[in-house]
Description:
Elements: E1 8-13, E2 28-34, E3 37-40, H1 60-71, H2 83-86, H3 133-142, H4 152-160, H5 166-173, H6 180-191, H7 200-205, H8 214-224, E4 243-244, E5 250-251, E6 256-257, H9 263-266, E7 275-276, H10 298-306, H11 326-337
Antiparallel strand pairs: 1-2, 2-3, 4-7, 5-6
Amino acid sequence: MKTRTMLLVLSTLVVSSSASVAAEPGKKSEVVKSGDYELILPLGLQADSAYIPEGNPITSDKVELGRLLFFDKRLSKDDTVACSSCHNPYHGYGDANETGVGVGAKVGGRNSQTALNRLFSVEQFWDGRAGDLEDQAHGPLVNPVEMAMPSHEAVVTKVSGIKGYTPLFLKAYGDDQITMPRIAQAIATYERTVLSGNSPYDRYKAGDKNALSAEQVKGLELFEGKANCATCHASFNFSDEMYHNLGVGWDPAAKKLADDGRFAVSKREADKGAFKTPTLRNVAERAPYMHDGSEATLHDVMVLYNEGGKKNPHLDAKMKPLGLSDDEVDALVAFMYALSGPVTNAKPPASFPQ
């Protein structure tokens, strides 16, 4: 794991910017300082949990370059798929398909995870095989069922052939050399500015007791208590950043898992069928759910948890039947909607370099 860069945490009144969302008047938010760049966090997010690699500080020019690359379909083999195709800003930076769909309508094996609040996450992908966002950005570009470029060298050649990108790399890096590490760094930097906070939940926690409905308050109490959700969907970003087996994908007839999950990376028997806990920020916008997209609605997800997951030899010890009533399940679903807030820096570019 890379060393976390030193961050300066400031308490300040939030002001609107391209990379921030204003909280209610008088509410305080935190700031992540990286080099000479200040990233104002939406209400509810915590600067001391931010991760920025020492070798890739945030700059305004790098953010803008990364935004263009993130939305540019020309980074794919046939100019039809961008990062944003599967991490759609209009779908909670996730994907409406059960599993990702790439070049030539090829279908991947896993649901596309949200790109929201990656500032607070180190390992990436459902199985954590990428060490950070920079590492993650390399993968989809050359995956044959995603963006399908033949090699990273081909990506560099293609981007270099778009003359309008050359001055943008010069501004972002101090010279006009275009390399794969720089492409990945720019995309990762942009993603770290895509943040969700200032939700009804955050405003409720900040003192606005009218921010949640009575049913959502009941859902919050269940979330933190009887339903045991907060055990894994922990802290302000609603993720423990760990891996758990819920039994999703278990075939009882064949007595096997459809996807080994974290085991493929760790080779630990206990990690079979374990997948990373996703953030619940803006989760109501991101159906379908689970690593395979097998749960169509939030209600379906709550029913799965209420039943204690699907029994299999590697089921997480935390998974137990919850004994929730129908009204309690509905209250938890209602609370999930209280976790949606405005997203910073989400507007797609109006045009691209030529």
